Amino acid sequence: MAYLFTWPVVLYYMLFRPTLRKRTRHYLDRRFPAHTGLRAFLDSFRLSLSFAKTLVDRATTGVVGPDSMRVRFDTLDEFHKLAAQGKGMILINAHVGCWQTAMSGIHWLQRPVNLLMKREPGDVDRHYHEHRQKDCHYKIIDPEGFLGGAVEIVQALQRGEIVSVMGDRVFGNDKNTLVVSFMGEKAVFPVGAYKIAAATGAPVAVMFSHKTGPDSYAMELARVIRIDCAHGLRLDNLRPYVCEFVRALEEYALRHPYQVYNFHNMWAARK
Amino acid sequence: MTLKEKIKQTLILELNLEDVSQEEIQDDAPLFGEGLGLDSLDAVELVVIVQKHFGVEIQNMEQGQQAFQSINSLSEFIEGRNSQ
Question: Mind telling me how many Å the CA of B80 is from chain A's nearest CA?
Fold first, then answer.
């Protein structure tokens, strides 16, 4: 029912807020370079509508609880094996699907999840854990805190917990980024997750979610990346791992073109 | 080799501070920001380095704040922990 309201709202924003429509073009122009005019407008509309529905889902999960959405997790066994290694796990997400809703089902892993997360002034929507204050299995690590939460991150991994980071958006120090080809053009990606993995020995699991129905999502373990730190932690030694994540993200964009919600122009901030 | 020298040598090696020599690292200069110029991701490595090479665990933020001010403070922290 709530989805019905998304149509007029999105239409209004598409027609009367061109700046918001423009933000959808960073990704869509690379995903559908041949689409122009009305076709491009419809792409923006479809992507925005899809995003609006995930906002409804996210709010529903937060208010009603994680059981309000069905979350399918096909590779749970593989996940359990990784978690059982006792080195913790770095979970790399991206701004795709609805990671907050999908991760509400991560209690299946029976391990605490630490979200390395910075809120931006422009973030108007609330996250799952912010709706539901009680019984929340997330713990937020603020990367803007002292030492960027370094002590908490290492401690959490050594306790065998999960540390979740976003792999497709650069925050903070530009020193920890690499420029990699993404959808045919150079784009900037953060290397923090791989650096943490190299320092601590934790495996990296690339996990994406996608909406499969009005009240259902699927989680997929897109890649398991193991960092070989024998060559030292120089920035360029991390390039193969970043590329592996980026390839996984490209594959996702091919399969689910209207569920990629990174409205940030990652192609503009080249070094 | 003194503890401070060992700390400097370990940081240069483990953090790939190729352009920095031991003599250039001042004992009282800040490790983060100005001074040695480490950042938050280096801090993750630093927590692991201190544990791995000096057998000392940084257990919480307060300890991290106390230890990671400078080479002097890190040296004092490690000595204090090892003497306990």
Answer: 19
Q: What is the pLDDT of residue A209?
A: 94
Nearest CB to B48; choose among A176, A191, A200: A200
pTM listed for this prediction: 0.90
Q: Domains in chain B, start-ordered, CATH in brackets? A: 3-83 (1.10.1200.10)
In chain A, what residues touch B16 (CB-CB under 8 Å)? 232-234
Residues 6+ apart with CB under 8 A from A85: A203
Please write the tens of the pLDDT for every residue from A98-154. 877 777 766 677 788 898 887 665 555 555 555 555 555 678 888 877 788 899 999
> Considering CB atoms only, which of B16, B43, B59 is closest to A150?
B43
Q: Are A261 and A95 in contact (CB under 8 A)?
A: yes
Give A94's DSSP letter: -
Is A172 within 8 Å of A221 (Cβ atoms)? no
Do A59 and A223 touch, CB atoms closer than 8 A? no
**ipTM of the shown complex:** 0.89
d(CA A54, CA A152): 30
- Determine the Cα–Cα distance for residues A90 and A241; give it in Å rounded to an integer: 13
Q: How far is B2 from chain A (nearest CA, A)?
A: 25
Question: Which CB contacts under 8 angstroms, 24+ apart, belong to B22-26?
Answer: B25/B71, B26/B70, B26/B71
Query: What pLDDT is attached to residue A52?
Result: 95
Burial A162-196 (b: 16+ CB within 10 A, else e): bbbbbbbbbbbeeebbbbbebbeeebbbbbbbbbb
CA angle B10, A232, A180 (to 5 degrees): 135
Closest Cα in chain B to A191: B41
DSSP SS3 for A217: strand
Tell me which chain B residues have a C-beta less than 8 angstroms from the C-beta of A154: 44, 47-48, 51, 58
- Among A35-49, A103-117, B55-69, name the most confident range: A35-49
